[in-house]
Amino acid sequence: MDAVLAALRADHPDRAVVDELTDRFVALAREVHRCCEVVILEGPASVAAVAERVTNASADLSYVMRRMAEDARAGDTTRRSADSALATERERALYDTVKEFRLAARAAIGRTA
């Protein structure tokens, strides 16, 4: 995620690099979503609720990153600044939600550290 955003924020994004990084990110994001689905279906309600928020926060960030990648491929810079700020906001939201997930998972398995 960080590598994709860094590549997209470059003054002149390298389209091949952006595509490669985006493809790798999408594959990893799909794995995270699959794992979250298992937790949502089989985990305790307290953890499932946070796992669903992780999935939603990841999807929100992915949407912005896809749009940024499409704009980079098209050479369109009109939304670049706004999308970069939005990506930063959504990246932070995802990070915070993942922290919540870790705490909920630790509590569910009886670990506090």
Give a description of the structure.
The protein is mostly helical and 113 residues long. It has helices spanning 2-9, 15-42, 45-74, 80-109. α3 (45-74) runs antiparallel to α4 (80-109). The protein is elongated, with a radius of gyration of 16 Å. The mean pLDDT is 90.
Beta-strand proportion: under 5%
Average residue pLDDT? 90
Global morphology: elongated
Number of helices: 4
Helix percent reads over 70%
Keywords:
mainly alpha, single chain, 4 helices, 113 residues, 85% helix
Condensed summary:
The protein has helices at 2-9, 15-42, 45-74, 80-109. With 113 residues, the chain is mainly alpha-helical. Helix 2 runs antiparallel to helix 3 and helix 3 (45-74) runs antiparallel to helix 4.
Fold topology:
Layout: H1 2-9, H2 15-42, H3 45-74, H4 80-109
